[in-house]
């Protein structure tokens, strides 16, 4: 799980940026997981496996939970997501406008 712990949260951010980057749009953890699987994520990964990452994004102030139906969580963005390049780890990263300017790569965490 060490690779997933680093890469999956970044991929979730990228998916939100590419598909749901609108503060009026509601999206779910299920939709994002399906999009990630259609992009090659291991199909064995379950909604329970990614729950911790959505909780991280919620705690970071990127998304807010607006409803829940069993394991399906409905979210909206607090503010639009911006794509930027971290000059420390050289990765393209995605941060909400209201989030601290800190690289979301858990192995980097440099100021951006
Ligand atoms: Zn970085």
**What bound compounds does this protein have?**
zinc ion
CA radius of gyration is 13 Å
For this structure, the CATH topology of the domain at 2-79 is: Arc Repressor Mutant, subunit A
Protein structure class: alpha+beta
Main sheet attributes: strand count, strand direction, barrel closure: 3 strands, antiparallel
Shape: globular
CATH architecture of the domain at 2-79: Orthogonal Bundle
- State the distance separating the first and last CA atoms: 27 Å
Q: What share of residues is helical?
A: 25-40%
Tally of strands: 5
Please give the count of helices: 3
Beta-sheet strand percentage? 15-25%
Notes on the structure:
Helix content is 38%, strand content 22%. It is α+β, with helices and mostly antiparallel strands. The protein has a domain at 2-79: Winged helix-like DNA-binding domain superfamily/Winged helix DNA-binding domain (Arc Repressor Mutant, subunit A, Orthogonal Bundle). The strands form two sheets. It has a three-stranded antiparallel β-sheet. Strands 4-5 form a two-stranded antiparallel sheet. Strand 2 (63-69) and strand 3 form a beta hairpin. Helix 1 (2-19) crosses helix 3 (47-60). The longest helix has 18 residues, at 2-19. Bound molecules: zinc ion (ZN). The site of zinc ion has 8 residues, from loops.
